Amino acid sequence: MNIEERVKAIISEQLEVPLDSLTAETTFEEIDADSLDIVELVMALEEEFDLEISDQEIENIKTIGDIVNYIESRI
Amino acid sequence: MGVISPIGSGKEEFWQGLLSGRSGIRKVTAFDAGGYPCQIAGEIPDFDPARYLDRREVKKMDRFTQLGAAAALMAWHDAGLDRVGIDCDAVGVSVGSGIGGIRTLEEQYRLLMEKGPRRVSPFLVPALAANMAAGYISILLRLRGPNAAAATACASSSHAIGDAFRVIQRGEAEIMVAGGAEAAISQIAFAGFCSARALSTRNHEPARASRPFDRERDGFVIGEGAGIVILESLDHALKRGAHIYAEIAGYGMSADAYHITAPDPEGEGAALSMQRALDSAGLEPEAVDYINAHGTSTEYNDRMETLAIKKTFGRHASRLAVSSTKSMIGHLLGAAGAVELIATLLCMEHQTAHPTINYEVPDPDCDLDYVPNRARPMKIDVALSNSFGFGGTNATLAVKRYVGA
To answer: What's the ipTM?
Structure first.
């Protein structure tokens, strides 16, 4: 699986949204993720990709594509 | 009413379990209890929260909230409230828990130790809070009336229901969703209760371990579950043609002012609680047909409660029937009072006292009529339900059969 697929798989599992409904353009607002959901999601991503994402960086993340780009830039 | 118990979920299944005297006590499956002095519990192994609640929400809740919310939905449906338009600002929630989200705490503490503070879930604190079942039920059903959660150990849900009764009496709500939920079958809770020497160690025969009032009783058995009742002002209930199980006639509260875990051996606090319930209902002791006892199966409680009933009822004590639901489902801690009030209401509805099972060897200190081992058809017009908690807190609910205006 590439990074985008791994990110989508985690989001789908964690937030109970169908995998095929997620695209790079999907925003967290669209999938009803509140600030606590995002914190939890970031934890799972940190675990999966073995990196640390600061609160400041979290604020700049609006879409799944943003996460993928960010992770790609870090590993 | 809505109930999830170790002998069945929903009022029909629960009643069948009570009537047939079935035990819901088995070997613990939630964790490996091998090294614990007590290895048995009243679990609900087949509880599937996703049958009642949104999967994504379920993950953020502790099991006690899942149980409480599921029971609340059952009660809401049973009361026909999902089929009528009601003013949700006039509907409140009073749902307690003795311990709250201890399973989530235990799991997250393990993560903290293994992986550090950055891996502790942002949902820990809301999962843990003992009022979260009450909070979640209000969100689920959009109820903006008074919202509270009694946390008085094993008396929590009796207090929650009694307090809800007072809210309606004061005119602060037309309807209250009231009861309790508990899911404390966890390693840390077991270890603590074991160390306090509160639990039965009859591990080789789980179904016979909870034996209230029997001379060979050796402690209580932890159970999990939830019980929710819908309390409603009489006018409101009559206007919408609701099925009325019974009338909450009175509510008594007291404290032992004696010890953190042991009840006052003289039963003064428990007797005061029952007396106050009778007084607030305007009932003579002789009017009471049936008492659903706290009846935990501990040496102390059962002797003390017997004495307290004798103090309150005098000669009538030997004429009324007393039974312990805990003989079948174990001790549901903060959910016990609500589940046992539901048992009491079902006994009233069927005019049959459910049995105290595992009653085999009489104890000279426990010499009342405990409805041993077999259900008994009888007149039940007025009943009490007792709950006593650590800290020496006591609550008694008095219920009366509704006979119409």
So the answer is: 0.89
